[in-house]
Amino acid sequence: MSVTAKIKVILKIDVCGKWSDDCTVAQVKKQVKDSADCILNQALKNKPENIIIWKESEIVEIIYSEDK
Question: Is pTM beyond 0.90 here?
């Protein structure tokens, strides 16, 4: 018997950063996504061929808080 299987793993990458008040939400979203993609690519730098990035990353949460 020969069997193969595939699994999907969902990761949550915490991207910490600080942006000034004059940054647009679009700019923050782009920079957060770029940072997360960079972190993921670094983590998978020497990945085996049987691991692929299946889908483009997506932003699931942006938390805004005033600095104290």
Answer: no
